[in-house]
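Throughout our pipeline, every protein is held as a single compact record rather than as scattered files. The record that follows is passed on verbatim for readers who wish to inspect the format:
___
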Amino acid sequence: MKIRADILLAEQGLCESREQAKKLILAGKVRAGPDRVIQKASELFESKTVLIIEESCPYVSRGAYKLLPAVEKYLPDMKGLTCLDVGASTGGFTDLMIQRGAVKVYAVDVGTAQLHQKLRDDPRVISRESVNARYLDETFLPAQVDVMTMDISFISVMKVLPATNKLLKPGGWAFVLVKPQFEAGRKDVAKGGVVRDEKVRARCVEEIADFAEKELSYSVVEVIPSPILGPKGNQEFMAVFKKSF
């Protein structure tokens, strides 16, 4: 038998009432298992599903923590800025930028129905679903953006950056999550999809940095190891770029 998420949360004794459960879900603080953020109180789950309240996370997804160190260091105030979030998924990066003052965030993803309801309801967020960012061009947005973030999977960022670069203003910031498991060759990815060799990880980062400098005229500001690991325990890296022209 399946039960609504808000009812299940209350029945499991994790909150005092169904109304409180709805508020926690809307705030993006309830997960089903370690990774899946519940987006709607009406979502149905088996009665044995273990729900978790992530009260310490102020964002709709813990993925925001992958971007947070770079933003805090280089762009803590985003007031008045327009942003593009490529590979938005649940919207951790989008939520972070909105909370930092961005006036508009285009949340782009190849999938559908992933963006958290809180962000769907926010007029500052424009959701663009079923979009393959590899084929974007200048006509996709009404104007170039000040900031571009990227968190994509199953494809190298080097195949997507040339397209998204067209949408970033000269002098704009690009925060690109480098995932060695999708950059390295098959022989360098261990069983289970994990890149364990530090030299391989370093090579992947270096190749992307060189590509950004030579092909896109980006300045490499810094590469920051992600404070949280990716799926299956992969170490990921946030590459911080500044567009020259």
Summary: The chain has two domains: 2-53, 64-243. The domain at 2-53 is CATH 3.10.290.10 (Structural Genomics Hypothetical 15.5 Kd Protein In mrcA-pckA Intergenic Region; Chain A). The chain has a mean pLDDT of 91. The radius of gyration is 19 Å.
